[in-house]
Amino acid sequence: MKSKALWSILAAGICFALTAQAAQAAGDEVEGKKKFFTCGGCHAIEGYANAYPNYHVPRIGGQQQAAVLAALKSYKTGDRIHGDQPLNNSMQGNASGWTDRDLEDIAAYVSKRTLSTEANAISGHPDKAKEKSALCAGCHGVDGNVLDKDGKALNQDALRLAGQYEDYLIKALKDYKKGVVRKNPIMVGIAGSLSDEDIKDISAYFASQKGLTTISE
Ligand code: HEC
Ligand code: HEC
Which of 1, 47, 172, 211 has a C-alpha 20 to 30 A away from that of 166? Predict the structure, then answer.
């Protein structure tokens, strides 16, 4: 990708982040815990994997509140499709049937986690990702925890990548690269500039950082 095009994507992302910052997500954590019961069968089991296609169900404990809400709303409207095709879309089923208020409560519950201090197991080469992952730092933070160097929140929309399962990150980046089931224009542009090798190394790098947890209570 030409660097000029990439810069306009980055600038668009920054403006987007600033406007979204103003609209802070509400939500009742206690109510959210009750509503989460239908989700735990997949999201509260460490190492649980999804069949067809086979990859880990993402860790969402400590995920950014506004980003969780945005993900749930886009599954609900069908804008983000889980799996490879609309027929295999169980997150749409999971996110439907809830009001926006319910989803806000769930997002509040999910995001209030103490981050993990244990690094995740990986199979790729994080050391090769140094240069490429610098491209992600402005939004996701150097280690994928969406914090700047002083530990302040960088933006509300970027998902936390630190401690996420490696195979899930690979799947997500490939989905953005294809642009069919994941359509966020910022990430479609960025993933399009990465080779399959870059995707593996970067995913190994972020997966090996400490951060997201499996929800256990
Ligand atoms: C049958 C298993 C299953 C159940 C039940 C389930 N999920 Fe999911 N969830 C998944 C899978 C698999 C993905 C990854 C989908 C994809 O690739 O987009 C996912 C993705 C997500 C994401 C996006 C995370 C990210 O990093 O982008 C959120 C948020 C989420 N689920 C929340 C929930 C909530 C809240 C519930 C309950 C209302 C729920 N899930 C129920 C399997 C499940
Ligand atoms: C301009 C800001 C910006 C930059 C730079 C950026 N991202 Fe993102 N990223 C986002 C936003 C916003 C989302 C949420 C998009 C959505 O809703 O699908 C996201 C989502 C993701 C996801 C999905 C995570 C999940 O749990 O579903 C991955 C993986 C990801 N980014 C990886 C990267 C990598 C790797 C780089 C660098 C090569 C990068 N991003 C650079 C803003 C950015």
Answer: 1
